[in-house]
Structures are given as C-alpha cells and as structure tokens.
C-alpha cells in the first residue's frame, strides 16, 4: 500500500520501519524532520508537510497526545483537508475517547475512512513488529487496514465498529498496566522492608500465579535501578490516567485505583520525575515507607 | 513419614489426601469429625484429639485464621504440649506474621522444630497436589519437611530461615491477587459500561500482556456470574487484607491499594457478601457505576 | 451603578435582587426569560440579549459552568464584543482557573476591566445578601466593583491582583466543604451503626470543636432526610471537584481526598443522584455500610 | 471525693491538678514517679503502686493506649483487684471499643462501677479545666462521676448507658480532627502552590464557613512552622486511626478517608515523624506536591 506515517517518536519510528520491511510505500512526516533521516535511508520518502503525507491510500498517525493529533488532523493542510475521498486515516496514538469520536464524525463528513488502532507494547516491541493492535472501525475499513496492522503487529484484536471503543480499550489497558506497577511497588516495599529478597520474591511471583510479561518487565524495572533509556515517559503516564478517568467520568464509572494512580503520577512529576520512565511510580511506595533497601 | 494433619477444610482435605497418595502415614484431626470420614476411607487414621495427631514426626496445620491455629497450638493438649522434642510443626495456614513469630519462639523453647509453609492455590489446585509452597525456616528443618511439600505441591520456594518471612510472602501474595480482582473489576466496569464486550476484552487481556493464571481465573469469576461453589470465602479475604495491613503497619509501610481493598471487603460483607467468594469484590466497581450490563 | 446581571438561577436571582435593593440600576438577562419576570417586578429592566445587558458600567455573570460563561462571554454579541472600553466584567460563577485566565487576557486585549469574584453561600444566603465574596483583580478594578460586592455580600476578601487566584480559592473552598460532607458522613455511619444517636452526636460535635456553620448545615442535611429543595445540585458538585482537580493537576498537586470525592460524586450520579443536593454524597458511607438506621 | 488518678502525662497532669483545685482528695500514680512531684506540691498524695491509688471512692485512668490501661487494670495489684466493691473506675483514656467492653464486663463481675469518659482538648485545654467530656455508662454511675467531670471539663455530653459508646464517639471525633488536618493540608498545598498567601487564605476560611476552633488551631499548626512543644504525638495519632478503623471493621463500616489517614501517619512515621505533633500529617500534601513555599 501507499501509506503516509506521521509521528516518528520511539514507537512510530519502529512501526514505520516495519511497514517498509513489509513492502509498503511509506512517506514519513515528523515535526522535527531529523527523525525522518534513518527511515529515508531505509527506503521511505520524507514528506515536507502533513498534506504530502496524505497523498496515498492511507495515513497512520502515531503521536503523543490529543493536542498533537488535533494539530495534524484539523486546520488548513491537515489530514482532514488533505486526504482523498475514500482514503483511510488510522489513528494509532493513545488519544481520548472524545477526540476519537470527533475524528470519526469529521472523516465521515469528509467522505474519508477512519479507524482507531492503538497499540500495546514498548519501543523494543514496536521495533520488532510484535505489537498487539486493538482495532475498531467499520468492518470494510478494518479489512482495508489489515495489511498495515500485519506489518506492525503480532496480532490484531477487533472490538467494535465504533472506532472510539478501541481507544477505550487502550486507555483501560494502560490503566491496568499502571495498576500492576503500583501494586507490585507496594508489595515489593512491604516484603523488602520485611527482610525478604526482592528479586527472589519477584522470581517467585512470575514463576507462579503472576507469570505474565507485564509482571516480569515492570517488576524488573522497579527492582533493578540500573539507569536505562526511558521507554514510556512519566508525563505520558499521567496523560493516560487523565484520559482514562475522563472517559470514566463521562460514563459515570468511579475508578478508585485510577484516582490513586493519577495522584501517584502527580507526586512523581512534582518531585523531579518529568524525565523518568512511568515505572518510577512503582518506587513511590518504598519512598513513602522511608526507603526500603 | 508419620504425620498428623489438622484442619480438613476445602484446602486441607485435598492436601491430606495427597500426603496419603504419596505414601505417608497420615493421622487426621478436624474440629467437626465428620470431615475425617472420607480421608479415613482413603487410608488415614482419625485422631480424636489434637494431641493424638501429634504423635508422629511431624504435624501440619491448615486452619482458617490465627484464632484457630492458636487454639490447637497452645494450651493443654495442644501441639506445643504434645509434640515430641525434635518433631516438626509445619504451619501451612495463612496466619499473621506476629503469630508465626510467637510460634517460632514457643517451639524453640519446647525443643521442637517449626517451619512456615503457606500455600498458593484454590481448592481444586490443592486437590490436584499442584500448590505452590512458600516456605521459610532453618535449612535442616526445611530439608526434613521437603517430602511433605513434595506431596502437596508442584514447587517449593524457600525465602528465609526465619519462618515468619514466608507468612509475609503469603500475605503480600494474597494482597496482589486481590489487587488483580479489584483492578480487573474497575477496568471491566469501564469498558463494559462503554459498550465493549467484557468476555472479548478479557480474552484480549489474557492473550496479550496479562497472560497469567490469576487474570484468567479471576476475570472469569467476575464476568461469568453462573453460581458456583465458593473457593475462598470473602471473610477470609478481609482477614488476609487485615493481616497484610497489620504486618505493613508494624513495618511502617503504607499500602494505599491495600487500604482500598480492605474497604471493598467491608462494603461487600456489609451488603450480604458473607457467604460469597472473595472475587465478588471485583463486581463492586460495576455496582458503583450503577450496574453495567 | 448601571449594571447588567446575567444568570438568574437560584443564586443569581437573589444576588440581582440585592443589587436592586441597594439602589443600582439593574438590567437582567437569562437564557430562559421567564426567570426575569419577578425581578422586573422588583424594578429591573429585562434585556433581550447578552449585548443589551452589557450597556452599563459593569456586567456580572453568575452561571453554572465554564460552557455557560464561555457562551455569553465569547462570540458575536457576547460580553467581550459588547462591553464598552473601560467597563467591567465581574465573573461571580464558579469556573475553572484556566477560563478565568483566558478571560483576563481577552478583556485586557479589548480594553475592558475584569475581576473574578466567586461567592460562598447557598441560595438562602444569596437571597439575604449575606454571601462571602472572594475577590481578585487589579486594585483599581476591585475598588470600582466594591459597591456591587457590598450589595450582594456580607464581607469581601481580596486575594490577589490576578483574577484567577479567586477562582482557585473558590474551588479549594468547595473542595473543603465537600470534605466536611464526606468525613461527617463517614463518622455518622460509624457511630450510627455503633448505636449512638446521630443527632445527639452531631449536636455534640457542633457545640464543641466543630462549631462551624458548615458542620451544622451539612450535618443536618445528612442526618435529616426530610425532602427539601435542592440547594446545590450534585452534578455541580462533580463539576467543582473536576475543576479543583484540574487546577491541582496543572500545578502538580496531588489531592487524595479530592480524588475520593470525585469518585463519590460519580457513584452518586451513576445511581440516581442527578437531581439530588450534593450533600447526598454524605449518605454513601452509610449505604456502603449496609444502611445504618 | 477521694479519688485516685493514674497517668500523669501532658493531659493527665492538668486534669489531676484541676481535681485538686476543685477540692477533691487526690492520690496520684505514675509509672515514672518524677511526674508526681509537682502535683504533690499542689496537694496530692503520691501512691507508690496502682493499688494504693485505688483506695478511694473512685479512680481515673488517663493513659496512652490499650496496653497501658490493661497493664494497670488487670493482673495482681491492678485496679480490678484493688478497687472496693461499689467503687468507680473512670476510664478517660482513648482506648479501643473492645477493651472498654472487656472492662465493662470485668468491673461488673467484680461488683465495681465503670464509666468511659474520654476527653476532647489538647494539653493547654486540660490545664485550663476546659475539656469536653464524652461520657457513657449507667445513669447512676455517671451521676456519681459528675463532680469529677465538672472539675476537669467545661461540659459533659452523655451518650449512652453502655460505656464503650463514649469510646466510639472519642475515636470518631479524633478521626474527624485528623480529617480536618489532612483536608486543610491538601487545600493549603493547592492554593499555596497556586500563589495564594496561605495565612490570608486560612484567615478567610476561619472567618467564614469554617469558623471552628479545630480549623484555627490546626490551620496554624500546618502553616506556621515555628518549633513548638508536641501537643499530641504522631504515634498516638496512628494509634487512634487504628482503633477507629478496628471499631469500624468490627461494625462493617468502610471509612475511606480513615484508611487514607492511616497511610498518612505511616508515611509520616516512616520518614522521621515519630517525635512530631500529629498535625505534621497536614504538611505531607505539600511535600508530595514538591514542597510548596
């Protein structure tokens, strides 16, 4: 397929590269153009504007937040103004349910197709083309998009013909990951201060009832404080909790652990955590406990 | 080994049966003696008193709470008074760190051996002999107890030579399971009220990042409301949160999600949940949201 | 003064009436015009548009939320477009810090004056002209507005020359009132279920350490379930918690009790509370406790 | 009356002195006898044992916790063993509902009278004889005790003929005070970080809707960090939250803000707060917010 890709951050770069590998013709655009260079080397065409990235059958957006997606989708030279009738916008970003609903209506009015397909996985998983794709949109639209999903992901899960449902699934999924970080952090603070070896404890958990990738990965990130690159920045974690809570508020669903997580992120960000990985909230319980180790 | 087994509830019955299967000579005791009958049929000897169950090399206790363990361990005719010098008491119950410390001291003073070996798994896992055993105690003592652990469990994890550390691990583990129930309940309420199919959502979670038994089992218990036998009663869930919080308080470790879980169990128990499985707290989020489906 | 008044709800009607009583020339506007009739009878002039209410030296807005204030302030025929240079907009509504900052900039650009002066007190207090006014804005502007404050309030407190600080004070004040409702509700559920007479308990509290109007008023609203008119509707309570949390999030201040209150309001609204007074959250603790009396 | 007084801490010393002032014959006992000296100077007789303090018509206990009260009430030479039949034990300490129930039964069995009369007020209020007394017990018993209450307090509130109800009132009252500290702390962190003067804000609150002593006193303790003597130590605050939560758990009443307060005290105590006044939890919100001023 001839496809545009907008947003070459740590996730998007890997996704665009896997589209190329799968044989698609990819035109890439990024606000700061330097990030396009390695992809051009790998065979992509660099677009000098959003509009240029919208000349194919489809365009994928993978951006940090609602504001970034709005700024490329709306207004003069934006996706809505540039995409051909019948062409497809796949929104892979973690955005609000409300913005996804707004885009659904706007693309319909413009005679364009729209699907939401947020993805699960950290940058190394994106690079490996092993993301999980949570997709929603009209059946025809998803069929059209499937080759793109196949290129970036290991498996696609279809939830609804209403795109915003996929955004709700993504937000609730990130909420559940943050729950794992927080609750593991509490348990590790408790056993650690009680004199149990934290790594041995984690090994026990993940080889018994909690044998899921999310416990292994985040458990290690909490216990092993070796400096490493930020996979998912703390401010994005706060953003996701805010969006999950906003969706929940709209639906009148109280999420008490969600509220607590939002407070954790605020505490982290108010105390120097702006540049840390979101897993750093998993060390706040130990800090409250006076520092464990 | 010649071993006594005290406490033939839904967990203990299966454990005792697996000791028999493994070829141990088992003398069983239960407060209400009717529960001993099926085990006697399977080859066990029925003891008419705690003291009678203490005549072998070891005795295992598997009882509901601190009060029950104290009542068989202490006082005239109790385990401490009845066990031979050098014989072993394995406490498999989920009891407080404080009581485990008290038993450690009391058995030492009586010249007896003591190990804590609480287990992970619901009744059907106990019946299958596939429990995970979290053990702590002096190395020699644990070596002695290993054949018993092998009979009841799939794998033994040794945490410390201080028995109470295993109790801390068990309590923190149950805390983490309850965290899964609560947070899954919140996420399911959110997506369910938002119009996403809950079973499909659960399937997505457990085939991606949350592919752990605990998510599968408790997810199903929350979503599928078919009546079924109670595996772990809600009042025991409250007890475990209380013991985890008590251990944490002693160690000065705040556990905010633990506090929230305690409140959930109180809400459940105050509203007719005394006879329900503890997974019922996973449906309170949906109830707060006005009933989802 | 010649002053316009926009928003004749249960609070605004009383405030406008007290401006008339104090001798000001008042032009009133309300989206549904029927509410203007009793004030016209009392001497006010009815405006048929927002613009008509902006022909004097000042205009006061007293509306339900950000959306309502935006809709009368912005756009064609709105306050910003209609008010004379040098004329004054007093925003008495409980609005977000962000909107107040936006209005500050917009009025400055239009050469108009702007002050924020949210008020404390329920409808009967507004009717009595006994509100507390929390004001902020440039000193000159506040001096100009003082006669208006004197007409509607018992006392004016000046916080800053930056208008939005008064909005922050108002939101934090409503947060503190909601805290009283929630915590009184918890204490009343505890002692009530424990067999202590709730009215006697409340009388004890308010004649000793908690002798403040807010404890007396809200204590009675919780304990005495006689049906009565809604003073401050639950959805407005949720809105205020949301705005307080939004301001706090912007400032990176975690408010754990604020988070809990937001969840309480969601629970109330999801369970039939849309038309109830916000004090109804004070009965949720008793409900969680299984119903106390 | 001829009355014994056991427990001469910062509260008890003032209370005993006021009993002397009112003309009662007071025999005082304290575990560390040095504290008796100033009272002996003021006219008291120093007892060298608990039993000696139990020779009059009544004995009052004012001790730190359940353990201290148990240790003087029970066992050889304790109050239960020493008090004459028909003589009265007034328990003024903040103890658990459970211990109060146990003492009620034990004194009845010993043919002695028992009333619970916990008091509200900090040490300076105790010194002034201006405490509020929350009393419960059989009517005859309370009539007998009234002259003692009159000596130490400004006003007596009678709640029930079951003594432990007064303990429940006391615990719920301390819970409500801690709620004020926490919620004021959150509001002060919010407005302070937002640029509003905290003292001016506090002055506004306490001269309007929150005009209660508890807001004035604790507001000042939070905002004004001048070192001053500890009025009520943080570990006692934790104890009171624990006892309130234990009573609530027994009654199946979830107290979410109570749970949060317990966590706050644990955080405080885990981070150097053992020797601080309990009002220090009111500064944790600002600390979480990165330090406000």
From TrEMBL, chains A, B, C, D:
Q: Which superkingdom, per the lineage? A: Bacteria
Q: Write down the species.
A: Ancylobacter novellus (strain ATCC 8093 / DSM 506 / JCM 20403 / CCM 1077 / IAM 12100 / NBRC 12443 / NCIMB 10456) (Starkeya novella)
Record key words, sorted: NAD, Oxidoreductase
Task: Fetch the Pfam families from UniProt.
Answer: NAD_binding_11, NAD_binding_2
Task: Give the top-level enzyme category.
Answer: oxidoreductase
**Protein's name in the database:** 3-hydroxyisobutyrate dehydrogenase
Q: Name one GO molecular function term.
A: NAD binding
Q: InterPro entries attached here?
A: 3-OH-isobutyrate_DH-rel_CS, 6-PGluconate_DH-like_C_sf, 6PGD_dom2, 6PGDH_NADP-bd, HIBADH-like_NADP-bd, HIBADH-related, HIBADH-related_NP60_sf, NAD(P)-bd_dom_sf
Q: Which residues form the 6-phosphogluconate dehydrogenase NADP-binding domain?
A: 2-157
Give the positions the UniProt entry annotates as the active site: 170
Q: Which GO terms describe its biological process?
A: organic acid catabolic process
Q: Which PANTHER family match?
A: CYTOKINE-LIKE NUCLEAR FACTOR N-PAC, OXIDOREDUCTASE GLYR1-RELATED
EC number from the UniProt entry: 1.1.1.31
Could you read off the lineage of the organism from its UniProt record? Bacteria, Pseudomonadati, Pseudomonadota, Alphaproteobacteria, Hyphomicrobiales
Q: Which residues form the 3-hydroxyisobutyrate dehydrogenase-like NAD-binding domain?
A: 166-283
